[in-house]
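Exercise 7.
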Amino acid sequence: MLIKTKRVYEEPSESDGFRVLVDRLWPRRLAKNKVKMDLWIKEISPSDELRRWFEHDPKKWAEFKRRYFEELNHKKFSIDLILNKARKETVTLLYAARNKKFNNAVALKEFIESRIGS
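Solution. The predicted structure, written as tokens, is:
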């Protein structure tokens, strides 16, 4: 099972497998018909309140993940959908944030990987 993260602005590749946009808002400057993705799961993204509070601040990362994981515990359908896909092929979680280390896709990947086998 392989789950990857990638900025939606990066060039798609064959190794991406099943591409899932995991942001609530559509990425700026991208036409919907130009984005190669298989699915857009808006509801799996952090709540607007949490997203605004976090602002991709590395100092808030641990608390962001704690709060986001709490939200994700109530999104079983979306988590199971990604888990089931990842059992069959590579899944790439797409995000728009500039920060490649501190964003919701990285946190979501960690959350899903922690659920593998449970």
